[in-house]
Each structure stands twice: as C-alpha cells, then as structure tokens.
Design goal:
The chain has twelve helices and seven strands. With 343 residues, it is of the alpha+beta class. It folds into two domains: 157 residues, Butyryl-CoA Dehydrogenase, subunit A, domain 3; 125 residues, Roll (Nuclear Transport Factor 2, Chain: A). Strands 1, 2, 3, 4, 5, 6 and 7 form a seven-stranded mixed sheet that branches. The longest helix is centred in the N-terminal third of the chain and has 19 residues. GO terms for molecular function: DNA binding; DNA-directed RNA polymerase activity; sigma factor activity.
Length: 343
C-alpha cells in the first residue's frame, strides 16, 4: 500500500524476535490508537484495541509480506478489529448530543443518562507527532481538523463501513483501491460509501466541513487564560462574555444541551452557586484547548475533580463548549494525567 506519511521499515526475514518487533512497531502505536479512537469514539476502547492490534500482529507476523508496508498491515488489523468490536456492541456509535432532542432552557431536567454511550475526549498528550503534519495525498481533511471533538462526533453518525472508508481515504489519504483491498468489495463500492459518508458530513456542517483549526495562536492562549480566570473568580459574566452569540454547550452525560449565549447563561444561573469555589488547570484535548476544573464544596476544604471542559474557539470567542460532568468527567482526569484531588 502507498499510505503516507513517513517511510516504513519492512519486517523482513527471518521472523523477528519480540524486542525487534516492538522496536519496529513502536513508531505506530500512537497513530493506531488515534485511528481506533476515531472509529470507536472511546478513549478506553481505543487503548484496548490498539494493544490488541499489536498483539495480533505479533502472533501473525509470519503472515506479513515484507514487500508491503508495515504501517498498512497494522492499519488493516486495527480497522478490522474496530469493525468487529462495533458489530459486537449494542450501540454502533457514541454521541455528544441525544439524537433529535431539542435544546433546553433553564434548569437541566433531562438528568444524566449513563445508559447512553457518550463520546469521550482524547488527551493531547496521546496524540502522535504526525498530528501537525500532512496526511496522504488523497486526504480531504487536514490532520488538525480530523482530531477535533466535533469531527469525531460527526463521523460517529456514519455506519461502521462508511466510517472506516472515510477515515482511510479522506483522513489518512489511502486510495479507494487500497481501501477496497482492506475492507473487501470493489473500488466502486468504496467510492459509493465515500459519497454517502461525505453527504452525511456535509449536511452536518454549515460550510460542509468542520471549523478550520489553525496552529494554536496567542489569541487562543489568551482566550483559555480568560476562561480559567472566569471560573476561578466565579465570574459568570466573565464566562458568558467569552461565548459567541450562537455558542453551543453540551454536558455529557446529561441529556440537556443549550444553544445561544442567553440560554447558556440561564442554565448556569441555576447551578453556579452549588460550589464554594473552583480551581482551573489547563490541559489539551482533541488538539483543542481544554480545562480541568476542581471544585470545593461548601464546608469542604478539599479541591476535588469536578469537570473536564473542551473548548472549540472561533473568532476569539468560544463556539462550542463541551463539559464532561459527574462521574464521567471525574473518570477522565486519570486519563489526562490529573489527580482526583488537587494538592
């Protein structure tokens, strides 16, 4: 296969021992995990499937044709593992917003919905170095676009085979022929799947694609700093000022979501005084600025993990704010290398 980027060293013959095999596959671990995350929408499932991919590759290393691409062979195993895992689970995709649920106003009444499968964020610390590089020549999406939380949420709407085809062709830059060899079927069937997948994504975005994500800028860093200050000062006015007029707010695992600055303010006014104070810690998720918020309850001196916030900036304001709350948010702190209690 002619996938890109980067040169690939073949496994060769004789069959490698374990240390040599691990040296050759080490460079692909992070990108395989990211690929599994895009397929599954779950950080934890991605970790398990990436490890399973390397285990399967080790056990089946004698089947590898050294004339081909090691990277392509690993992606074949990873993609098929993800398709099998999706087939085996009850929910075929994870969500940031419950389908067809209208935006809420005022207090949240939908309640947490642990029975739904919620899309998880991806720590920037786990992103491969290639996240700032160029995808293959056939790709339609820039690498930074294709890690955004909103993009991963959008492709979860696709049936698994369409999802795999779009990721392999439009994100990684594989040809339709190469993708057909991996997924089975004809080149025409892959092109048909791509056409349907692109139409679904085009309908999802006003401009037919996600907001363009440039390299992090000084303005973005200032926006993040102002956001953290608003929380630490418990300034609701300061927080709302940072939102675009048409901003969207999600808070998995609660069903409720809010559209527009006025509606978001109306919700926060109902919960803002639930804690005695907040402490914000900068982090990164899905190539976007993110904040981990610790909260101190009234008459409790300890700062405890409270929520994980993923910010999508646009025009020096926040266009989309996704805040993981409750046990879902608290469980993510470990994956982001953060303690459950702030020292």
């Amino acid at each position: 296969m002619t996938d890109a980027p980067g040169p690939v060293e073949p496994l060769g013959r004789p069959i490698l021992d374990r240390p040599a095999f691990e040296r050759l596959t080490a460079a692909h671990r992070r990108e395989l995990k990211l690929h599994c995350y895009r397929m599954m929408g779950s950080l934890h499932e991605a970790d398990d499937l990436a490890q399973d991919t390397l285990l399967r590759a080790w056990r089946g290393r004698s089947q590898f044709d050294a004339r081909g691409s090691l990277r392509g062979w690993l992606y074949t195993i990873a993609t098929n593992s993800c398709l099998n895992a999706l087939k085996a689970r009850s929910a075929m995709h994870r969500i940031l917003q419950q389908p067809e649920r209208p935006p809420s106003r005022g207090p949240a009444t939908g309640g947490p919905a642990p029975e739904l499968t919620w899309l998880e964020p991806y720590p920037d610390a786990e992103l491969p170095d290639l996240v700032d590089g160029e995808p293959g020549p056939e790709a339609r999406y820039e690498t930074r676009e294709a890690v955004q939380l909103a993009f991963v949420a959008a492709i979860q709407l696709l049936p698994p085979r369409q999802r795999a085809a779009l990721l392999l062709c439009d994100v990684l830059g594989w040809s339709a022929l190469e993708t057909a060899q991996l997924l089975g079927g004809s080149t025409a069937s892959i092109n048909s799947a791509l056409q349907r997948a692109r139409a679904t994504l085009g309908a999802r975005y006003k401009q037919g694609r996600p907001l363009h994500r440039s390299q992090p800028s000084r303005q973005e860093a200032q926006l993040l700093e102002r956001y953290m200050r608003a929380w630490q000062a418990a300034s609701l006015d300061g927080l709302i000022e940072l939102l675009r007029e048409d901003a969207t707010y999600h808070m998995p695992p609660w069903r409720d979501w809010y559209q527009g600055r006025e509606a978001i303010r109306g919700f926060f006014e109902t919960v803002w005084g639930n804690f005695a104070g907040y402490h914000a810690v900068a982090t990164g998720a899905n190539g976007q600025p993110a904040v981990a918020v610790y909260a101190r309850r009234h008459q409790d001196p300890v700062w405890r993990a409270q929520s994980l916030h993923v910010i999508e900036p646009a025009d020096d304001r926040i266009a989309l704010l996704t805040v993981y709350v409750g046990s879902l948010g608290q469980d993510l702190f470990k994956a982001f290398g953060l303690p459950p209690v702030w020292p």
